[in-house]
């Protein structure tokens, strides 16, 4: 498969995830609407682009798949670069669609430190990303869910956002966090939303190797 095609799919896919997912947050939608926006976007992207790029659209997922030795280090790096670019362009597009309104957060997320400590926020993001990466590795990469893999992954993401959304924003995706943070110029918690998902992906890859 042509790597250029894969990178185009990853760019468009990550753009779509952030544009629709972060866009639903920017619109002030309720939690269930935000969760469904993210989850259904992942589902349709998997069925559209999955046969081309695998529809990672998440550096943590690419990292987990790389550790599982299902993608080369060079291609994984390119995937992550285009994912970050796609997320950034999506956030920038939302910024201009909303007329650069300073009262909108454009889908930017941060831990709710009135309800949870920063340590517990880290642990929660690790656990939820583990669930997501685990579903990708087993349902899609190993094809254990067959044609239902997209549904398994999408509904896993919906469930994770329903649990983690009020506490951490349930990013589970460094690119999803990076785009809005870049547009707002606020990187205070970006370390959390990079390190925790990558840790969750790392653990998922180790469990995958033991189970499959």
Task: Provide structural commentary.
By secondary structure, this protein is an all-alpha fold. The protein has a single domain (3-102, 109-211), classed as Glycerol uptake facilitator protein, CATH 1.20.1080.10. The chain contains 8 helices and no strands. The protein has helices at residues 3-26, 31-53, 59-67, 73-97, 118-141, 149-168, 174-184, 190-211. α1 (3-26) packs across α7 and α7 (174-184) packs antiparallel against α8. The longest helix is centred in the middle third of the chain and has 25 residues, at 73-97. It is globular. The mean pLDDT is 95.
Going by CATH, the architecture would be Up-down Bundle
Assigned CATH superfamily: Glycerol uptake facilitator protein
Instruction: List unreliable stretches of 5+ residues.
Output: none
Q: Helical element count?
A: 8
For the termini, the CA-CA separation is: 25 Å
Q: Would you give the CATH topology?
A: Glycerol uptake facilitator protein
């Amino acid at each position: 498969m042509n790597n250029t095609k894969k990178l185009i799919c990853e760019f468009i896919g990550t753009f779509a995830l952030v544009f629709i997912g972060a866009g639903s947050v920017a619109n002030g939608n309720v939690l269930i609407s935000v969760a469904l926006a993210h989850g259904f976007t992942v589902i349709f992207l998997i069925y559209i682009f999955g046969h081309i790029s695998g529809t990672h659209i998440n550096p943590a997922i690419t990292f987990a798949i790389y550790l599982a030795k299902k993608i080369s280090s060079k291609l994984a790096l390119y995937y992550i670069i285009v994912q970050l670019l796609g997320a950034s362009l999506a956030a920038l597009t939302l910024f201009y669609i909303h007329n650069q309104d300073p009262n909108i957060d454009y889908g930017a997320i941060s831990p709710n430190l009135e309800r949870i400590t920063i340590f517990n926020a880290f642990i929660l993001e690790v656990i939820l990303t583990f669930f997501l990466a685990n579903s990708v590795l087993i349902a899609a990469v190993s094809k254990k869910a067959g044609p239902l893999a997209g549904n398994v992954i999408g509904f896993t993401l919906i469930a994770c956002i329903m649990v983690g959304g009020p506490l951490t924003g349930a990013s589970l995706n460094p690119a999803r966090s990076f785009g809005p943070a870049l547009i707002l110029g606020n990187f205070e918690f970006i370390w959390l939303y990079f390190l925790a998902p990558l840790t969750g992906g790392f653990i998922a890859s180790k469990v995958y190797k033991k189970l499959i």
